Every structure is written in structure tokens, then in C-alpha cells.
């Protein structure tokens, strides 16, 4: 039984090349990933700083420093601390649905601009905070910014990119997330050393730097040809933009496909109702399953709480932050490798290899912690560095598989008529389960202890099997011809082809 394949284009390849115009536009748009990554990295770092904990979470600080009866796995278990981390994702969840409407009605560019502005204000509030309510409100605004950016940026990158290079360009979003997280880890490592305990303010306030670049840069971003056609009957502007983006005057084939997709999209009055139709079942399943699986890989154990986790196994404050820097370098490097090979090897190979790599490293980390780390004391330095090495192996597996591909695949498989709606579902599901993991992880770590790694390892087994059997290969296929992969897939063709046959019989 054939469960995966590469689709060759039957006359569907468009003319064009990667132009400097596309590179500059996509680089600026990808700053939306930097703000997301910066926040992920910065929140985990500041919550391990003594000065931050002492000011806003004194009970956690007391447990960490003074209470020797509390288990290593439970010292950071605080509802208020998890609320600090997860409030951003609740805001992002609701913001993504508003952003979906703005993206469709006004375009990708205004959505990116609004996201940058909201993040900028949130960064200012966080840096100037004098009580916990101000800190959390600032994170809510950061969440609005991230929700808008995560809705618009992956779509923008996929629509601007030539089909042959769409994987590499879209993976730039995850690469930007990695750059943002790595920058945050480096900044945390430096600001932790600032005397008088105000280093955390610098860490939170510096989020304004990428937010300012994104906000100002968005003013000069061109709109995508897809969005121009979707929002207007005047196709001349879209044709001129398409020629500029592709670096050629021979764009008629791609323009015709865009116009055809737009004509279908304009007949839709209720896209959320439309996406429930049987013919869109594969896309709906992927819009929900892929971001869900991305969040239950366990990556947030590392992304949010790496310094906290490293402190739990006995490393000091500074060593824990430095360890987070190391994992950040590995994650960013592996995502860059993914950008180079994703359009050659395809999506499925990276998903499967990365899944196996994550599973093996998670099981080994869980085994070491079960054998060596009790409720009190720490592990030897040798085992601590072995855990760090295995976590780097895990991060590398995520960095070239579920990290970038979790954003790439959903953004490239949706037809234009449901694209904005489906992307909002993807982002909302991502934020929902990011929130759930962030809100429950410290409590789960306290109760499951080392078993937390086996818990996430079980999900990795399930998601790897899901990819193997149900996800077709999408490399090199034009985005407006993506419906072909479902018609030719061993499982999905039974659903989409039968639906079309039923529809033809009803209209006959």
C-alpha cells in the first residue's frame, strides 16, 4: 500500500525565480517569527532569575532557596507563575480569529503591521512593570501581537515564494523563531549578571527591538498577489506585483490560477461553515492535527522552561541560562539545515527522521532522570551534561522537522477560498495547546517527575505514524494546485473524490 509520494507537476510549474525583492520582503515579514521566538526564550529565562522571582513570585523563590522538603520536580509549581507564561497564548488564541478577518478583508500587510504595534506596546509595559498585574497585561498585548503575526506571516511567505523554493522560504519563519529565542537566551545570560536585580527589566524591554523593526518594516512591505486578487476586481495591480515578485513578464499561467482560485473564494459567504464540507476534510484535519502534534512533541518543556529544568537537575542559575543558550544554538542551526534540504528531500522524510530522533532522546533523558534524580539533591555533573547533550539531540530533531514544517505544511495546503480561515484554525489550535502545555507542565513535572518525557514520547510515536500514513508529499507543487495531492492519496482520495462524485450527481 502506497502511503506517500511526490507529486510531479503536469504542466503546473510557473515561470520565475527568487528575486532580491522577494528575499527582502520575506526577510522583513519573518521578523514576526523573531518576536514570537524572543518571547518564548525570554519568559523561560526571567522566570529562573532570582530577582524576578523574588519581586513577583516570592513563594516560588522561597521554595527554591529555603524549603528543602519540597521535591526537585515541584519547586517551580505555581499557578501564578504558569499564568505569567501562558497568558500570552490565551490572548493569541482569541487574537488569531480577529486576525483571520483582517487578513482576508484588508490583506496580509495590515495584519503584520498591527501585530508588530501590539507587541511593541506589550514590551514597553513588561519592561516598566511594578506589579504582577502590569506584567501579565503586558504579556496579553504580546499575545495579541504574536497572534496577528502567526496568522499572517506564514501565509505571506508561502504566497510570495516560488513553488520550488516555498519550503525553504517558509521555513524561514521557524528559523526566525529560533533566532529570536537564541537572542533572548543570550540576553538573559547577560542580564542575569546585572547587579541590583533589574536585569529582568532589560530582558523584557528589549522585545521592543524586533517589534519596532517589524512595525516599521511592515509599512514598506508589498502585499501578496494572492491577496490583491482576492480583495479586488482590478487584476492589473496584482499582475504587476506578480511580475515584480517572480522577476519575469511571463506570469500568465500563475495569474490565471490565482484568478480562478479568487473567483471560487469570492462565492463564499461563510468560510467557517464552508471548511466543514467533506471536500475540505483533509485540510481541516491537517489544520487541527499538525499544530496539535507540534505542541505535544514536548518542545515547550525546553522552550519555556529549559533554565528551570536545568536548575531542577542541579545546575546553577548562570549555568542553566548558558545551557539554554546551547540548546538555542542547536535549534537555530538545525532549522537552517532544514531550509537547505526541505525542497530536495521533501516534508515527509524530515518529519519521519525528526520524529525518530526526538523519541530516542526523550526516552533516554527520562531514563537518566528516573535513575539518577531523586526528589532531593541533584545529579552528578557528568549526568547533567549528558542530559544537556541528549536535549540538544532532541532540539535538533524538532528543529528540522516539526518546528518549521508545523508552520510550512498548513500554510501551503489550503485553497485560497478557505486559506485565511484555515490558517486561523491552525494558529488557534497551536495557541490553545501551547496554553494547555504551558499551564500544566510545571504541575505535570511535579506529579509525573521523569515520566513527563515518556508522556511526550508517546505522542511522538503517534504523530510519526500519522505523518507516515496520512500526510502526502507537497514539495515543489504550486500552491493553487495543491488539491491534487488529496485526489491521489491512498486514503484521502476516497473522501474528496466521492464528495465530488456525489455533488455532480446532485446537480445533474
Give the strand content.
under 5%
Determine the oligomeric state from the structure: single chain
Note poorly predicted spans. Answer: 1-12
Provide the residue-averaged pLDDT.
84
* SSE class: mainly alpha
Number of separate helices: 25
Kindly, what is the distance between the CA atoms of the first and last residues, rounded to a whole number of angstroms? 34 Å
H and E order: HHHHHHHHHHHHHHHHHHHHHHHHH
Main sheet record = none
Global Rg = 23 Å
Helix content: over 70%
Shape: globular
The beta-strand count equals 0
Keywords:
508 residues; mainly alpha; 25 helices; 76% helix; globular; disordered N terminus
Compact summary:
With 508 residues, the protein is mainly alpha-helical.
Please give the structural blueprint.
Layout: H1 20-29, H2 31-46, H3 50-56, H4 58-65, H5 79-106, H6 108-128, H7 132-160, H8 166-191, H9 199-205, H10 208-218, H11 225-231, H12 236-246, H13 252-265, H14 271-274, H15 281-295, H16 299-303, H17 306-312, H18 317-345, H19 347-372, H20 381-399, H21 402-413, H22 416-448, H23 451-470, H24 483-488, H25 493-507
Amino acid at each position: 500500500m502506497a502511503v506517500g509520494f511526490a507529486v510531479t507537476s503536469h504542466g503546473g510549474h510557473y515561470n520565475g525565480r527568487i528575486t532580491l525583492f522577494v528575499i527582502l520582503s520575506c526577510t522583513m515579514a519573518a521578523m514576526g517569527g523573531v518576536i514570537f521566538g524572543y518571547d518564548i526564550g525570554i519568559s523561560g529565562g526571567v522566570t529562573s532569575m532570582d530577582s524576578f522571582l523574588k519581586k513577583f513570585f516570592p513563594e516560588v523563590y522561597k521554595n527554591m532557596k529555603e524549603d528543602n522538603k519540597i521535591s526537585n520536580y515541584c519547586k517551580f509549581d505555581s499557578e501564578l507563575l504558569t499564568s505569567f507564561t501562558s497568558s500570552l497564548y490565551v490572548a493569541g488564541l482569541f487574537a488569531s480569529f480577529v486576525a483571520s478577518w483582517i487578513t482576508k478583508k484588508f490583506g496580509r500587510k495590515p495584519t503584520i503591521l498591527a501585530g508588530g504595534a501590539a507587541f511593541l506596546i506589550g514590551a514597553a509595559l513588561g519592561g516598566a512593570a511594578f506589579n504582577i498585574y502590569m506584567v501579565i497585561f503586558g504579556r496579553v498585548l504580546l499575545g495579541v501581537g504574536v497572534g496577528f503575526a502567526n496568522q499572517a506571516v506564514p501565509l505571506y511567505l508561502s504566497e510570495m515564494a516560488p513553488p520550488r523554493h516555498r519550503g525553504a522560504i517558509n521555513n524561514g519563519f521557524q528559523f526566525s523563531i529560533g533566532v529570536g529565542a537564541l537572542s533572548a537566551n543570550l540576553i538573559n545570560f547577560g542580564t542575569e549578571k546585572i547587579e541590583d536585580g533589574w536585569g529582568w527589566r532589560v530582558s523584557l524591554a528589549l522585545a521592543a527591538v524586533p517589534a519596532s523593526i517589524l512595525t516599521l518594516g511592515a509599512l514598506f512591505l508589498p502585499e501578496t498577489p494572492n491577496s490583491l486578487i482576492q480583495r479586488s476586481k482590478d487584476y492589473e495591480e496584482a499582475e504587476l506585483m506578480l511580475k515584480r515578485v517572480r522577476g519575469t513578464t511571463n506570469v500568465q499561467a500563475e495569474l490565471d490560477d490565482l484568478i480562478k482560485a479568487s473567483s471560487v473564494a469570492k462565492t463564499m459567504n461563510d468560510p467557517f461553515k464552508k471548511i466543514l464540507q467533506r471536500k475540505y476534510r483533509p485540510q481541516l484535519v491537517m489544520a487541527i492535527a499538525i499544530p496539535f502534534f507540534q505542541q505535544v512533541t514536548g518542545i515547550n518543556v525546553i522552550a519555556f522552561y529549559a533554565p528551570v529544568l536545568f536548575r531542577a537537575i542541579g545546575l546553577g542559575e548562570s549555568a542553566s541560562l548558558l545551557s539554554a543558550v546551547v540548546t538555542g544554538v542547536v535549534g537555530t542551526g538545525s532549522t537552517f539545515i532544514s531550509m537547505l534540504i526541505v525542497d530536495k528531500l521533501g516534508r515527509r522524510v524530515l518529519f519521519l527522521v525528526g520524529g525518530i530522533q526526538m523519541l530516542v532522546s526523550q526516552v533516554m533523558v527520562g531514563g537518566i532522570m528516573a535513575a539518577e534524580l531523586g526528589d532531593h539533591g541533584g545529579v552528578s555533573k557528568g549526568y547533567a551534561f549528558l542530559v544537556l547533550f541528549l536535549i540538544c539531540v532532541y532540539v535538533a530533531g524538532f528543529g528540522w522537522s516539526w518546528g518549521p514544517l508545523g508552520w510550512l505544511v498548513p500554510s501551503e495546503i489550503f485553497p485560497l477560498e478557505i486559506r485565511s480561515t484555515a490558517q486561523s484554525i491552525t494558529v488557534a489550535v497551536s495557541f490553545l495547546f501551547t496554553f494547555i502545555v504551558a499551564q500544566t507542565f510545571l504541575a505535570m513535572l511535579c506529579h509525573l517527575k521523569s515520566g513527563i518525557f515518556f508522556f511526550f514520547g508517546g505522542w511522538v510515536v503517534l504523530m510519526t505514524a500519522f505523518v507516515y500514513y496520512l500526510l502526502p508529499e507537497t514539495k515543489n507543487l504550486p500552491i493553487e494546485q495543491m488539491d491534487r495531492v488529496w485526489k491521489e492519496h491512498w486514503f484521502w482520495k476516497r473522501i474528496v473524490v466521492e464528495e465530488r462524485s456525489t455533488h455532480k450527481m446532485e446537480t445533474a
